[in-house]
Amino acid sequence: MKKWLTPLALVLLLVTAACGNNNGSGNTNTAAGTAAPSQAPEASASAAASAAPAASGTITYESQTGPVEVPANPQRIVALSFAPNVISLGGTLVGVDEWTGKNPLFTDKLKDIKVVSDESLEDIIELNPDLIIAGDYMKNLDKLSKIAPTVVYTWGKLDYLNQQIEIGKLLNKADQAQAWVDDFKSRAEAAGKDIKAKIGENATVSVFEYDAKSFYVFGSNWARGTEVLYQAMGLKMPEAVKKDALGPGYYTLSNETVPQYAGDYIVLSRPAGTDNAFLGTDTWKNIPAVKNGHVIEIETEASSYSDPITLDHLLKLFTDAFLAMK
């Protein structure tokens, strides 16, 4: 098994590297859109080193970058990516990404869990992880792999169900992951049949989201419940959505084109604290689905993942809302 550097050694290594790379330029800019490191008070490296060790025993996980030896029962997981999938399997987290930390579905489950990023290496070291899960687009993957076994995934490389199965394999909980997948598919298929009996086999559904200036329409694999509606339930999308959003995952709309992409029913993803003036216009109000009261609103922050907890939440929400419509 690869020997991981101690937390104190890693701190010294990172400090030395930082000093060696400082040529007096004063350039501390980071890439736009990168989450800022957590500003929470830090524990000492010696305290991290004395934290309870992970359970003994390892397994070899066949990751997309090759075999990685990981704990058979990880006890201190830092999930920079796919944290909700870990939560759904009862994984023991000590660090999560910013977006999971802000998600209202996970607030109660993440009390006292530190928010970290791929750039807050000292924070991660002090958490003394025994497993790190990251995205392939993240920075410092080599440095992360020196802190603890690091498994990298490419978002979208696997569909949402197979991604859950892979996380199950990683956590040595493949049977649990597969059982949820089988059960979810059965429940969603049954709900889809009930909904189509209510709204019609050929009724179409569009999923919209907005920010202050723009509208977006989504295909079948960009969260916001799209996997539930189109893949699991088998509901239909309008031809314009199929043409422009199915391939890339989403499509940006000008306000005047929104009606062209509206189905018989609309799922509207509403981000907290954000308004778009278009929602108050006659153009929006005169869309048939809006006039007929066929709009289902969801919270953007609670629907931006495709993990079991989110999917089960949206499956119930959609089922209740569609079946209650007149």
How do the strands of the widest beta sheet line up side by side? 5-4-3-6-7
| Subunit organisation of the chains | single chain
- Based on the structure given, which CATH architecture of the largest domain is correct? 3-Layer(aba) Sandwich
Structural class: alpha/beta
Query: Averaging pLDDT over every residue, what do you get?
Result: 87
The count of DSSP E runs of length 2 or more, i.e. the number of strands, is 12
Shape: globular
Radius of gyration: 22 Å
- Helix and strand run: HHEEEHEHEHEHEHHEEHHEEHHEH
Share in helix? 25-40%
β content, as a range? Answer: 15-25%
Tell me about the biggest sheet? 5 strands, parallel
Number of domains: 2
CATH-derived topology of the largest domain: Rossmann fold
Unreliably modeled segments: 1-55
Spell out the CATH superfamily of the largest domain.
Nitrogenase molybdenum iron protein domain
Cα distance spanning the termini: 61 Å
CATH top level of the largest domain is Alpha Beta
- The helix count comes to 13
Please give a quick description of this structure.
Helix content is 36%, strand content 17%. The protein is α/β, with parallel strands linked by helices.
Q: How would you describe this protein?
A:
By secondary structure, the chain is of the alpha/beta class. It folds into 2 domains: 58-172, Rossmann fold (3-Layer(aba) Sandwich); 194-324, Nitrogenase molybdenum iron protein domain (Rossmann fold, 3-Layer(aba) Sandwich), CATH 3.40.50.1980. It contains 13 helices and 12 strands. Helix 7 (160-170) packs antiparallel against helix 8 and helix 8 runs parallel beside helix 13. The longest helix is centred in the middle third of the chain and has 26 residues, at 174-199. It starts with 6 loop residues before the first helix and ends with a helix.
